[in-house]
Amino acid sequence: MAQAATAAPATGSAAAYPPLKQVRRTMRVRWYRSPIDPRVLRGLMQRSDLKGWFQSVGPLVLLTASGLLTWHLFARQAWIGFAAALFLHGTMGSIYAAANHELTHGTVFRTKALNQGFKRFYALLTWFNFYDYAMSHTYHHRYTLHPNGDREEVLPRSPTFRFFFLVQILTLNFTGGPHTAGLIPVVGYTVKRALNKVGPDNRGALASAKEEWMSAVYAGHPEERRKSVRWARLVLLFHALVLAAAIVFQLWLLPVLVSLPIFIANFWRYVTHLPMHCGLRTNVADFRKCVRSIKLDPLTTFLYWRMNWHMEHHMYAGVPCYNLRRLGEAIAADTPEPKWVFAAWREMRATWRRQQVDPGYQYDVPLPATAQQPEQKANGHGSADRLGASIGDLAPAVIAD
Asked: What pTM did the predictor assign?
């Protein structure tokens, strides 16, 4: 039985946190990583163009097939089949956006130009700003669930299915929610970023937690922010051209199938993505306690770019996604066994219910009897530790130290 872990919820305004420049200088999280033979780890960290092509093109083929099926049923006015096909298209489209995570890490292809090309292609399709993400996600990996340095993932989360939210994630998501893209906030944020308006308004107020966080990560880095602004403008131009083509050629379904899939039927995205950190412990230096891996069916695992092996990814982030299962097998004796997704949800909801009466409660993941405790393994600064601490090519040069 897991023991309770209590910590103050990670809330507060930007003023409650130290500047990230200071955090980088003074805060060092000495992460525990499960023991693994350095030779095995080096083998697992090898990138493959062949595996990269399969992982990158496969979801696009499946999404193209579901899009063509949707178009065919629409043309035949087979409305029930059309609705089902569109639901499938949106479900896959919202999950395959996990490509952005892996491609921004830069670990998918051995050839960097291929990684860069697919990163931009997926990002255009999914309204994704990889410049923002690289800045934010670097902090997330270095300081996972340490709120002073990581506000990409802020706990507590509520694993709920409120009626209005449930209706949206089963149809068209307008307002968004935890780990689900909403049409209004995503497009609105992209427009604000393109206008270089993300951050304090003329009254000094911040519009959202995301804007507050992005203002923090770009503080002192105006050139990096300009890159983000230019990319947001390109994303808007791309989707404007899709819309223009639909109007000129009367292809009314084109923007629905190309520009909107991440907003349509993103129920399964919510179910599979929320368990990564929800309900777990903050301010601990052990990924086994603050990151959760889950078991999924093979198709979802493929579309999700194997990110269900999330604890393994955090522990050794330089390992390409297609090698994470083998990494999990190599360190299995030292890590919790992944739960199936719905068992993880039962765990999260039990934690959430307890947090309603004890807001400081956090679930303390039980470790197997064969697991080491962090104090049993001294994490020095040798070559093996530097290899294990790699986060791929994620960190922008300005914060790569």
From this structure: 0.92
